[in-house]
Amino acid sequence: MKHKDLYFYLYMAIPLLFPVAYFFTMNNKVACVVFYVVALVCMVFDQKEMVKSANESEPQFAASALGIIIFPPIYVYGRAKAAGVRLGRRWMLFFMYILITLGCTLIAVSMSNDSALKTSACEITTSIFKDKGSDVKCLVVEDMKKVSDKNYRAKAVLNNGVDMPITIEERDDNYIYVTLAPLGGLLE
To answer: Element (H or E) spanning 149, and its range?
Structure first.
């Protein structure tokens, strides 16, 4: 790997940042902002390296930024073309970037689905306690582990300090069923 290509290869790896940012923030908008900011920073430094290596007479910041915002793989193809990379390798880099991005997007979507399932299970747990005449509320569902295809084991953290084991079942009718493990004195 040549030093002049360092920021280009970092740009190629930026999609890996999306699921990491999503994991820490659990907010897809923040993860997208992090992705685009880091992509634009890498593009600026890469364009400066392209000028230093005499592949371009001046940086193409506006066109590159527009390409990144509209469809990020455009930058990969255009940059490879400006660097004199042969046509076959340009397309390979272009499709490799798309595959990396799709894989990272699937990871983030999977994390998002788990987050939605935990939120729903917590709301259902609170409603179960409410139906029993208790004011105990679920604060968060943690340690969710998949037991089988649509069954999960987890722990509901309650506002009375109890960590209650629960099971979560996703049924075909798009409903989520939560079963609480019996614990003595829980509703006190």
So the answer is: none
Helix 17-25, helix 28-52: angle, nearest 10: 150
Distances, alpha carbon 119 to alpha carbons 88, 114, 125, 176, in Å: 47, 9, 10, 11
What string of pLDDT tens digits covers the 188 residues of the chain? 456 788 888 988 999 888 888 888 878 788 888 988 999 998 888 888 888 877 666 777 777 787 788 888 888 888 888 888 899 999 999 999 999 989 888 888 777 778 888 999 999 999 999 998 999 999 999 988 989 888 999 999 999 998 999 999 998 888 899 999 875 555 54
Are the C-beta atoms of 74 and 67 separated by less than 8 Å? yes
Sorted by where each begins, the domain ranges of the chain are 3-85, 113-180
Whether the CB-CB separation of 130 and 79 falls below 8 Å is answered with no
Query: Which element (helix H / strand E) includes 154?
Result: strand 151-158
Q: What is the pTM of this model?
A: 0.63
Question: 89-96 contacts: CB < 8 A, separation 24 or more?
Answer: 93/12, 96/12
